[in-house]
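hey m, so remember when u said the tokens were messed up on ur end? i reran from scratch. heres the input so u can diff it against urs
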Amino acid sequence: MNIAYWIIAVPLALFYSYAGTLKAIRSRDQLRPMMAWVDLMPLPALRALGAVEILGAAGLVLPPLTGIVPRPAAYAAVGFVLLQAGAIAVHLRGGDRRITLNAALIVIAAAAVWPATRL
């Protein structure tokens, strides 16, 4: 079960670390070509979203890696499921029907929840 968790969690954490860092440091103009929805939310909210993604990625990896209270990894995975559900709502509200990546991320994060509870 431990190997299954790491196979799921590491790529998910890398993705959210990258995406969160982009949202935290880049300008709207730099983000707009890859994230058309950035104009739908205030810049401080965008920066906060980036910070949440970075912290969630750390929450997927650090607790099980250190072995100290691994339970937060499951909470981080559930948080990513909820985050992507909100992302789908934002995309659809903005008229963007490209939600395939968001749906895939929900499935991957949901798949990480059960092995995370077994760590």
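this time it looks ok to me. Residues 2-117 form one domain. if urs says something different then somethings off w ur setup not the seq
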